[in-house]
Amino acid sequence: MGVHNVHERLLNAKESEVGALIDTLASGDGDLLWPGRDWSPMEFDRPLAPGAVGGHGPVRYTVSGYAPGSWIRFEFTGPRGFHGHHELAVLPAGPGRTRLHHTLSMTTSGLARITWPLAWRPLHDACLEDGLDRAELASTGRVARPARWSPYVRFLRGLAARAGH
Question: Which superkingdom is the protein from (predicted)?
Fold first, then answer.
């Protein structure tokens, strides 16, 4: 099954300010983008650069491309059945405005053909919206419309917590 999933947020901030958020990924307390307080932390075996290996929780990937301050791409290595990548890009949107754009493009095979739509996608979507909220807060000082987890996402997170993930 082919998957093309897009999330983006239009921010009232300069490209350089939004791009700097990407560069903080996986930097622990200095990470201004990844919602690690509510989700598994993003971690890599070395600083952000092509070849860095890591991920968050059971989702594993390798950095396959990185242009500091503007773009990063991750190639999936797990979970089993995820074949493709996801990436973040900083796009100009007019004077003093920037679009932070996330694209997931993959095919699924095996059990992932069932687990992606039933579990992974709702969790992915919630996590990405939380990250976009963090980007908005870091770049503008406020979040106009904070993301909210659906009852189904809360249910899935409860199942994952009981399973130790």
Answer: Bacteria
Rounded to whole angstroms, how far apart are CA atoms 32 and 135?
A: 7
Which pLDDT score, from 0 to 100, does residue 160 have?
Answer: 84
Check residue 7 and give its pLDDT: 98
Using CA atoms, how far apart are residues 102 and 92, in angstroms rounded to an integer? 14
End-to-end alpha carbon distance in the chain? 26
| Residue reference for tokens 């979507």 | 125
User: Among 153, 63, 78, 74, which Cα is nearest to 108's?
Assistant: 78
Q: How do the domains of the chain map onto residue ranges?
A: 2-162
User: What sign results for the dihedral spanned by CA atoms 71, 119, 56, 81?
Assistant: negative
Q: Which CATH superfamily, name and number, covers 2-162?
A: START domain (3.30.530.20)
Q: Which two tokens stand for residue 90?
A: 């900083």
Handedness of CA 65, 112, 157, 46 (dihedral sign): negative
pTM: 0.96
What residues in the chain have per-residue pLDDT under 70?
A: 165
